[in-house]
Amino acid sequence: GSNSAFTAQAKGSLNNFTPNEYLLQSQGYTVDKLPEIKYARLADDVLGGVRPGMLTWTHEYSYARVGFKFNEPTLSDFGFVNGFVSNKNFGVAPSQSIADRLRAMGFTEDLVNRGDTRQELAGVFDWGPVRINPFVVGRLTGYDQKIGEFDTFSPDADKQYRAWWAGGARFSTEIVKVDDSVESSFFDLHRIRHIVTPSATVWSAASSIREESLPIYDDTVEALATGTAVRAGIAQTFQTQRGGPGRWRSVDVLKINTDFSFATADRNNGTIPNQVGSPISNASPFDRFFDARPEYSYLGNFFTGEAAWQVTDAVGLIYNVIYDFDTNQVARTVAGGTIQHSPEFSTYAQVRFLNALDATYVDAGASYQLTRIYSITAGVTYDTNANEVQNLSATLRRKFQDATMGVRLSFDNITDETSIGVVFEPQAAAAAREREDEHLERLRNIGR
């Protein structure tokens, strides 16, 4: 049906190293899936014949045969020849590898059969102007071997499954005000509709096994948050009309979102201690709360502010900041924009400051429609701390009747590696990409 999905994939690596920088900087390994099968149904109407839409059931099922693939080159191969530095950052000597550390922690490269199901019941009730959305979620994950058989990895040696459960409620309302007196040719404003949407989420979760006791093959399966969290915020949208008499159209000229999130001290931070006391963390240093599925959140005490201004039809600006109350510091700041020079040509640029890494990056790129069927995109990332280009990439695409195909060329200055890839997008995916080009490809997820 229109609310169901079935996917199947198989992937594996023939390399004895991890080519992706973000994986090396986080978990330090890749995961083979031979295969992975998923089936999901979204929002089945439980009371369709009595109270349509009042109670919905979302259910998902998956099976995977998963296994870790470790990074075998030694740290000295990556330039970490100082024993103090390598032990401080990775917990092993320069002559050892990240693979040696993971094996010492109890990780195994054996393929493991894993079954997982997620069940969610959600209701919708209106209490005056306030919409209330209570929900309960249950999740069961099982493995074909005891968790304790992952060598020395976990103290939960008698467990072969993980039960996880959560419950909570979302609250929201909407306030609208229209001001017909607003008129500005300089800012291209004709009337203003101001939409204010206050909302809040209360959520709590627990698990029979905490995240740090599980080998994490997938963040969306093993790395589920636990604890209690509250998010409250206000989303504001300012709409105007542009185009002129006879061709007026509504435009979201300015969006401002502000959110406060707080979590209890017993929240799961996803930190796994190793043999020498330094951590491997699957959690991001930047706290985020994902309202649709709070179990994927990086819980903490923080403020998030976002703003997007459509200055003109051709120019858009965006800003995002995360302030961490636990450290009393700005955790991340992003500012950037995009310019649509013509229907065929656009450019973007952004600046990212990551406080946890003490790093500032500048990203820039362009997209050009060469002909009716050929297009090209290119981007560059510049590290201001190292004063050098970090990455260069370019993608050439060609449209066919049922799909889009392309070739991607990328140079990673950190690893001094040049790679060539093939892009294949079925017609539906290609159409979706075109619709989201202005916000996703040219801005490269600014503010997300």
Structural write-up:
The chain is mainly beta and 448 residues long. It is built from four helices and 22 strands. The protein has helices at 21-25, 83-90, 98-104, 427-441; strands spanning 4-11, 29-45, 55-70, 112-123, 125-127, 130-143, 161-172, 175-184, 189-207, 227-242, 249-263, 271-273, 279-281, 302-310, 315-324, 329-340, 345-354, 359-369, 374-383, 388-399, 403-412, 417-426. It has a 20-stranded antiparallel β-sheet that branches. A hairpin with a 4-residue loop joins strand 15 and strand 16 (329-340). The longest helix is centred in the last third of the chain and has 15 residues, at 427-441. It starts with a strand and ends in a 7-residue tail after the last helix.
Number of helices: 4
Distance from N terminus to C terminus (CA atoms, Å) equals 31 Å
Biggest sheet details: 20 strands, antiparallel
Q: Over all CA atoms, what is the radius of gyration? A: 24 Å
Into which percent range does the helicity of residues fall?
A: under 10%
Alpha-beta classification:
mainly beta
Strand/helix succession: EHEEHHEEEEEEEEEEEEEEEEEEEH
Mean pLDDT: 86
Query: Judging from the principal axes of the Cα atoms, what is the shape?
Result: globular
* Content of β-strand: over 45%
